[in-house]
Specification:
Blueprint (H helix, E strand, L loop, with lengths): L19 H18 L4 E4 L1 H14 L5 E5 L7 H8 L4 E4 L2 H8 L7 E3 L12 H10 L8 E4 L9 H13 L5 E4 L1
Parallel strand pairs: 1-2, 2-3, 3-4, 5-6
Length: about 180
């Protein structure tokens, strides 16, 4: 899609960070692309991108143009620690909580918060809402409590299931929806 907008795009195959040789080759490929394209900004989306791209930016002479979009609260993992150690001029965070946690890491980096958001949804007619609920086997008239996230332990879908059970134990019927 980005290529169709007229921006040059490159596909650099994903690697596992523990595969040191492949990771170094990826850094070198990224360095060559940066030397060729001369970017004004290098935005690393997540810690793995930061680990692979920050060294490439430094090696290509574009180290002063690195921004890291940090999506997670730094858990103290080796990957997050390494990402924090590598140069970034600024770290964008998706919440105040993430920014505060990053602020406790060393070295300190300038951070700012951009809350994720969406355009307000359109008003859905009752007939369409009923059809959607029916297609998902959700009973009409019951509240639906849901979450949209990857199925990962840290996303805590287990808490949604416990909350629905808690509501039912208290005599409040509700449906749970995990998307």
């Amino acid at each position: 899609d980005v290529n169709e907008l007229g921006f040059p795009t490159y596909a650099v195959p994903a690697v596992r960070l523990r595969q040191i040789g492949k990771s170094l080759r990826t850094v070198w490929k990224l360095r060559r692309i940066m030397k060729w394209e001369r970017p004004d900004l290098i935005l690393n989306w997540g810690s793995k991108a930061q680990i692979l791209t920050s060294p490439a930016a430094s090696l290509s002479g574009y180290g002063g143009r690195v921004a890291w979009w940090q999506l997670d609260i730094p858990p103290g993992s080796l990957e997050m620690r390494l990402a924090t150690l590598l140069p970034a001029d600024v770290i964008a965070c998706s919440s105040r909580l993430v920014a505060e946690a990053q602020g406790r890491q060393r070295p300190r980096r300038r951070t700012f918060v951009v809350h994720p958001g969406i355009d307000p949804p359109r008003e859905v007619p009752d007939s369409e809402r009923e059809a959607i609920r029916s297609s998902l086997s959700l009973p009409l008239g019951l509240p639906v409590v849901g979450t949209v996230a990857r199925l990962q332990t840290r996303k805590r879908q287990d808490l949604l299931i416990k909350a629905i059970a808690n509501l039912r134990d208290r005599g409040r019927e509700a449906c749970g929806l995990i998307v």
